[in-house]
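Take a look at the protein record below and tell me what you see:
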Amino acid sequence: MGVPPLNPRPEGDGARRRWWPRLLALGLVLLVSVWIALGGYENLTKPNPRWKLPNGDTIEVLTFKHWRDYSVTLQGKTAVAEYLWLQFRSTLSDQARDSSDVMAAATVLCPYADSNNIRRMKIEPTRTALLGLLTYSRPHWFETIPGGSCQELLAHN
């Protein structure tokens, strides 16, 4: 009978150690590939558009799109909320200035929304934190009136 080795090592242990670096490298390559496909560094450093408003202020536009929210109830009914959505950068510390900017943006966007048959608008002064992962906003809702004007809604349902 032979003497057993001093440091016995299970046979599968070496194989287990070898696939972790490969899996980590593959994950890293996939992550970098997706980042590049979504715009990479150029997208991170691309400046946001700025709009000059009729009140004299200039806002930095974070989001401007025709938006649709879909929801399904437990009874199977589908509801669609469709609106024009504008978010602009704000510190949220000067409510009077934010309100002035919201009203000025609404006067510019109301004819656009009406001509595209969009009946609601959501305009939000927005503050971002932690590289945009956290956002704080103060939404203002408007209903477009045929003819290109808007009326602010006090409560959105």
